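hi! just following up on the protien thing from before. the input was this:
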Amino acid sequence: MRATLGLLPTRRVGVHAHVSGCVIVTPMSDTFGPDLCAGLRDLDVIDEVQGARVPCWLVYPTRSPEQEARFGPYALHVARDAAIEGEALPLVVVSHGTGSTPWVLRDLARTLARHGFVVALVEHPGNSRSDDHLARTAVNLVSRPRHLRLVVDAAYGDPVVGARLAPGAVAVIGHSLGGYTALALAGGRPGAFPHETPDGRGGALEVTHEPRVRALVLLAPATPWFAQDEALRGVRVPILMRTGEHDPHTPPIHAEIVLRGVADRSQVDHEVVAGAGHFSFLSPFPAAMRSPTFPPSQDPPGFDREAYQPRLAAEIIAFLRRAL
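and the predicted 3d structure came back as:
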């Protein structure tokens, strides 16, 4: 599990950006329409290996009017169980960080849906804010990519959304440990550390791969499980990777593992976002949750998360249109 990695050149970028205010009808074109909203429906997913339900919500384009819906402390404007708009829509699966929730990426999901993508917001059972008993275990590292594979199967089989999905056009967006999950699903071969296995020995992990995945978006990815030689050689899809200049949780070595490990580093679009921290890629938190005692709600001094979010979304949309 040990590796010696040097520093590779990357681009640094500030937070100044335009706001993408248009809504497209078909994600593969530049045809814009003014009326698309975001629909939302629950997706029923069961992981029989883990013996657990995998909570999942599909967010998708619709012409039905939106209303505010609440998911715990988080609010999102969506049209519940509305008719879907569009054909041959790409599927984007979102994997949250350890002990987190998919709702921390809710604004990105809604924006993608209004631009013609179907987004699956996945909550990882055993490693979420509501149930974190598998944190820091090899079982969790194996379960997470399996959750995503099950969600992909369920989305394509969904009676409302499934027939509107483009065959084999799947992307994964992962933040922090969600980045690990995306890389594992796309062909990575991780190894566990000794403290993560019951016998204290660590070793290679057998994880689920998904050949329908054609693109990855990695936001402050956590990657040390791929530090061994050849661990990422099986990852052969385009990658958009964004990391923070001031990130104590996933410092530069995590991005270097990706850049040095994948089969073709020219397929990786990596930028270090000037001034950003580990959590700067998440949606702004509700005012009641913003506190120095809750690190995910905080950014390094001077960084404007709200100003950065539209630019991040625009970059992701442009990347996914090219890759899918």
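Residues 1-34 have pLDDT under 50 and may be disordered.
The chain is about 20% helix and 25% strand.
cheers
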